[in-house]
Amino acid sequence: MGVLGKLVKMGTDIDDQVLFAYALNAAKTNSKAYLTATLVSTSTELRTFFSSLLTQNIHCHSALVALGIKKGWLEPDCKPKDNLQKELEKVECLFNEELSANEYK
Questions:
Q1: pLDDT tens, residue by residue, 71-96
Q2: Cα–Cα distance measured from residue 69 to residue 62, given in angstroms and rounded to the nearest whole number
Q3: Inside any domain, residue 62
Q4: In angstroms, rounded to a whole number, what is the distance separating the alpha carbons of residues 37 and 91?
């Protein structure tokens, strides 16, 4: 399987960490939408409604972040340089597997 094939496979393999990333991204997106709706609402009732939804969503996001830290998927104290190094190691591993697979052909 080529590098592109492996990238596609990695994109379709679903595990807890992938589901977590999707849920966290959805919480961020929803928060932005609820904040915008709260700020542009002209009616007090609508503003209150969207504000309460925003508050609920912030609590959901906080719970997801706590879960991510507990599981080790998020490292809030990690330096950006260390995060970049981890990503580079993943890419190197992907290419090394490709090279070793081609040796046996």
A1: 998 888 888 888 888 888 878 877 77
A2: 11
A3: yes
A4: 40
- Of 65, 83, 72, which Cα lies nearest the Cα of 23? 65
The SS3 call for residue 52 is helix
Whether residue 41 lies inside any domain: the answer is: yes
14: Cα separation from own chain's centroid: 13
Tell me the whole-structure pTM to 2 decimals: 0.67
User: Distance between CA atoms of 86 and 91, rounded to whole angstroms?
Assistant: 9
The mean pLDDT of 97-101, rounded to a whole number, is 63
Taking CA atoms, 104 is separated from 26, 93, 99, in Å, by 43, 17, 9
